[in-house]
Structures are given as C-alpha cells and as structure tokens.
Write a structure and sequence with these properties.
Layout (H helix, E strand, L loop, with lengths): L2 H43 L36 H5 L14 H20 L3 H23 L4 H17 L6 H26 L6 H14 L4 H21 L12 H14 L1 H13 L1
Length: 285
C-alpha cells in the first residue's frame, strides 16, 4: 500500500467532518423549508397572498446562528468539533448550551467516510458510499426529529443506488438492484395497506416505503429480509426501553426510518453476504 493509500481514510475522514457540519444544516433546515413550502401551497390553493415577503431561508441563507439568541456564527465558531470544544459547548454570545448532537453527527460522518476510504480507497465506489452514508444519516435524524422522510433525499438515494449498481460501484448488479428497489417498496406498501384494512390505522408512512426501496437498490433484493429483521429487532428493543423510561413522544409511537437506516449502515459495514449469513445463523439457531 502506498503512503497516500495509508492516509486515504484520514483525508476522506477530514472531508467527512466538513460534510457532517453541512449535514447538521440539512437536518435542521430541510424540514422547515418543507413546512414553509406547504404553507405557501395552502395559501395559493386558498387564493391568499402573504402580506409581507418571507425572508430567504434555504440550506445556504441565512448564515448559521444561535437558535436561542440569534447570534450569527463567525467562521471560527463553525469549525467542526473544534469550535464546540473551544466554546465548551456554549454559545459565545448568550452562553446557552449547544446540543452535543452537532459534533457527534460531524464525528459520525467523518468515521463513516473514513470507513469507506479504508475499504474502497480513493475511488468512485468510495464517493458513492460516502454519499449513501451521508444521506442515510440525514434521513435517520430528520425522521427521528419530525417523523418525515423527505422525497428530496429518499428518491435521489434510490436513483443513486441504481446508477451506482449500473456503473459497478456497489456489490450488486443492476438487475438485483432494480428488483431490490421494486421489492422494497411493494413489500412495505402491502404491509401498510394490510394493517390499515385490518385496524383502520396507518402503521407507517410512504417515506418508509421509499427508504426501503432505496436500500434494496443499494444492496439488492436478497438483503431486504435481513435488513427488515434487523431494523425491527432494533426498533422493538429501543421502543420497549423508551416505554419503560417514559421517553415515548405523544401518541406512543416512534418513527421506523432510523431503524431502517441503522440496518442500512450494518449492511454497508458488514456487506450483503455477511448480513445474509447473519440471518441464516439466526434461522439456524
């Protein structure tokens, strides 16, 4: 292995730190952008016009600021992880505590990017899997916060999986990826309607169908069963723990997307073949 090859995970991990900082912006702002768009669509449908033009709010504008006092962050307050440590986890202006989730997401993204570089080196495969990991992490956190899985993320993730398979950047061929996407969507769609017809209630959202289809595109249809079993087990364990700790949100439900994402990360780290071997071990045991 060359000197550059040895250090590939370090360089790519540093890029992951920067990208993780941007993910924090996506996780916070994208749901608010969606809500604002829904409000505009409703107003347009009702023939209403806003009295004043809303200020520009997107992933780039305005600059990052403290949610408590509105203090605009300078560049040295936006350095991933280091700024949080230097500020001792508090806003420079009002001293309000900053959630540790921000540096944790930056660190998690850096670790995932470094893992991709360790496995695939500097290659298109690493680029593809880094994009997969970042998108999946953002989806998991958005769904946990808001119970939303935005089409702006799930659908590009699905198409990217098919394109990566066609280009030979993943472990599956295009045919397996295509049927993985089809089977992923239809399986949860059928479960959704079966549950609704039996109980009159909605057990999950359409975003879960699209996320499962995206995982099918990235890992192929043979991996769908291990993914759904792992996500269900993780979800049941965490759900029981939250119930006993009175941590369930109003209505007593938890979103399923983060657990699908967790199983997706397991599939990326272990690989589809090992994930299927784990399932066979469970069945055999």
């Amino acid at each position: 292995m060359t000197w550059f090859g040895v250090w590939d995970p370090v360089w790519v991990g540093l890029v992951g730190l920067l990208f993780g900082s941007f993910l924090n912006v996506v996780i916070y702002r994208l749901p608010k952008m969606m809500e604002a768009q829904w409000d505009r669509d409703c107003a347009e449908h009702l023939g209403q016009t806003p009295a004043t033009q809303a200020p520009t709010f997107n992933l780039m504008v305005p600059r990052s600021r403290c949610q408590a006092c509105g203090h605009t962050l300078s560049w040295y307050e936006n350095i991933p992880v280091l700024s949080y440590v230097a500020l001792r986890g508090r806003c420079k202006a009002c001293k309000t505590a900053i959630s540790p989730r921000y540096p944790l997401i930056e660190i998690a993204t850096a670790g995932l990017f470094a893992l991709c570089a360790q496995r695939w080196g500097i290659s298109f495969s690493t680029l593809a899997w880094c994009g997969f990991a970042a998108t999946l992490l953002a989806l998991a956190m958005i769904d946990w916060d808001t119970t939303l899985l935005p089409d702006d993320l799930t659908l590009p993730l699905l198409w990217a999986g098919l394109i990566a398979a066609a280009a030979g950047w993943t472990q599956v061929d295009l045919r397996t990826a295509l049927w993985g996407a089809v089977a992923g969507y239809l399986s949860l769609w059928l479960i959704y309607w079966g549950f609704k017809l039996l109980t009159g209630k909605e057990g999950m959202g359409y975003g879960d169908f699209k996320l499962y289809a995206a995982l099918g595109a990235w890992f192929g249809w043979p991996t769908l069963l291990p993914i759904i079993l792992i996500s269900s087990v993780i979800g049941a364990v965490i759900g029981i723990a939250l119930k006993f700790s009175s941590g369930l949100r109003e209505g007593g439900y938890i979103p399923f997307g983060p657990f699908l994402a967790g199983a997706g990360f397991a599939a990326m780290i272990w690989g589809p073949d090992r994930l299927q071997a784990v399932l066979l071990g469970w069945i055999g045991g």
